[in-house]
Here is the input.
Amino acid sequence: MILTLVGTGNMSKALALGLKENYKLEIVGRTLKKAEAFIQENNLTADAFALEQLDISDKNILFCVKPYALEPVAKEFQGTARTLYSILAGTSIESLHQHIRANHIVRAMPNVAASNQASMTTLTGDETLKEQAIEIFDAIGSTLWLDSEKQLDIATGLAGSGPAYLCLVAEALADGAVRQGLKREDATKLTSGLFDGFATLLQKEHPALIKDSVMSPGGTTAAGYGALEAKAVRSAFIDAIEEAYKKTL
Here is the structure.
């Protein structure tokens, strides 16, 4: 299958690197020069196209531009796409149909871990494309098909934006260790290993059970956990999901 990526930003890069082993790619940039530079910079084997008057007839489009660019980019399209996979946050299928002619539309919300085939991607839309959509996005990690666009918008605040939240956690944990006297390189390596191991545990256990197994009465974990609760860290993360979801409305 040929997949046509429209856009040359960070998410396009992550998707291209994740998909290049399994699919033939076409890269569409605002100019041909931009598309060619994107291909060269990311060591891709792909055909380059300029956005101007792009014929999308019978193509499988991965639409990877910013939401505000939907209308100006869509105006350049000629013809009717076979399928449109949109990663535009907060952009409804109805709105996509209003601007782009496509026989089938699926909304997808991957994250930047796609470049390492480790994205957690949520999908929803045309049920006739469900199997194909899951197959495509399984190439860049794990997928979850959701029943509605509302659910996908909520998931955007979790799986889509989540890497940024976890980076905040990782950076803060390492900084805390450095503050107490650990060397930066050691703190960074320990934090990375912590995330690797925890991801494996989380696939098998509820987070509350993992927490309880670590927290001994009156121990170091209980002391640190108490400090987090005192600063309302749990509440802050819950609010972060709410605020991210609100931005999609």
